[in-house]
Design goal:
The complex is a heterodimer of chains A (232) and B (111).
Chain A lengths: L1 E6 L6 H10 L3 E6 L10 E4 L20 H10 L4 E4 L1 H8 L6 E3 L7 E9 L15 E8 L3 E3 L2 H9 L3 E5 L11 E5 L5 E4 L26 H14 L1
Parallel strand pairs in A: 1-2, 1-3, 3-4, 4-11
Antiparallel strand pairs in A: 5-8, 6-7, 6-9, 9-10, 10-11
Chain B lengths: L2 E8 L6 H12 L12 E6 L6 H15 L5 E9 L2 H15 L13
Antiparallel strand pairs in B: 1-2, 1-3
The chains are: A alpha/beta (232), B alpha+beta (111).
């Protein structure tokens, strides 16, 4: 399976995402924002960072990139697309996911190992988790407050499209503790925390077993790989 | 050069952490009379030609689709006016007309 990771001007976590793809057993394909070519990949990751310096709004200018036309088409045809942090912001700006992300309610940038609960274990990117499983992956953002109108929030909840919810601490003022959501087909998932930073022992969050041994993020990537194998 | 000004504000019902930080600083510096601050954005768009209906329609669309995100913000104004730069230039020009004799040292001042 070939998974494209799109680099935008100001992307920071594209290499980490490529590494996560590799560790999950797929082949990472580096894609460029200025191109119109998805190079035949089977899935896409929009990585974290500060595209265009967060000018205008986080993810707003990147969402107008040339390659986003192809991303939107592919997403609508069912290709798995994962937006992490700035990638999540781009997906909301591109209207591929609902809601929006605003500055953290406490006004500060936050970086912590975050516990969240998997509320939907049937999306392309979460099928390897158990429903209700609690996982810990790093969170690092300044504008991660998820908001939407009450109508949209009710619909997201009613349709099971809240994929992750923060546990113990709501780190950024997200409404209803929402950390990540999906589209109606479950192929497009966006979340603020960073699964690609918890994929290899020695470099992840601390666990009860050992320091930095957390690899809960790997499940995102193995989920999409396994689903592709099953469907092949 | 004609300038179009677009003003965008965070939705009224949303917490505005930037404004909250500023109002806190105002209170700390003795300006308790100011009870609220909200921070928005002002865009100045320059155009070469005349501002006709087609351009106005296009500006309204740009304001709604690109300059703002309707999920989190509202477009609160679209105006056709002079830019800050032009206003500043005019002010400088007007000032220089009054003082074009240059600096006149008050009596007794030596440099």
């Amino acid at each position: 399976m070939r998974i494209g990771v799109i680099t935008f001007p100001g992307s920071l976590d594209d290499r980490d995402a490529q590494r996560a793809v590799r560790l999950a057993g797929a082949q990472p394909v580096a894609l460029w924002h200025g191109s119109h070519d998805l190079e035949g990949v089977d899935a896409l990751v929009l990585p974290g960072g500060f595209s265009y310096g967060d000018y205008l709004r986080c993810g707003a200018i990147a969402s107008l990139s040339p390659i986003m036309n192809e991303v939107a088409d592919a997403a609508k045809q069912g290709m798995p697309v994962l937006g992490i942090c700035n990638g999540f912001q781009m997906l909301t700006e591109a209207r591929l996911l609902e809601g929006g992300l605003i500055r953290n309610d406490h006004g500060a940038f936050i970086c912590r190992d975050q516990v969240m609960r998997v509320e939907n274990a049937s999306t392309d990117w979460t099928s390897g988790f158990e429903q209700g499983q609690e996982i810990t992956i790093p969170l690092k953002n300044g504008e991660g407050g998820f908001i939407a109108s009450d109508d949209v929030l009710d619909r997201l909840e009613g349709e099971g499209r809240v994929v992750f919810r923060y546990v113990d601490v709501n780190p950024n003022g997200s409404l209803r503790d929402i950390a990540g959501i999906t589209n109606e087909h479950g192929n497009v998932v966006g979340l603020m925390p960073h699964p690609e930073h918890a994929v290899e022992p020695g470099f992840g969050p601390d666990t009860a077993a050992a320091m930095r041994s957390g690899v809960d993020g790997l499940g995102f990537f193995t989920s999409v790989v396994r689903r592709a194998l099953v469907e092949a | 050069m004609p300038t179009i000004v677009v003003e965008v504000m965070p939705k009224a019902e949303l917490l505005d952490p930037q404004g909250k930080a500023v109002v806190g600083a105002l209170a700390r510096t003795g300006h308790e009379a100011i009870t609220g601050v909200r921070i928005g954005k002002r865009f100045e768009l320059s155009v070469e030609g005349p501002i006709d209906d087609a351009l106005k329609a296009s500006v309204r669309q740009i304001a709604e689709d690109i300059l703002s995100n309707s999920v989190i913000e509202d477009v609160v104004g679209i105006h056709f006016e002079q830019s800050n730069a032009e206003l500043a230039e005019e002010a400088v020009h007007a000032a220089s007309e009054h003082t074009d004799t240059g600096y006149v040292a008050p009596a007794g001042e030596t440099h």
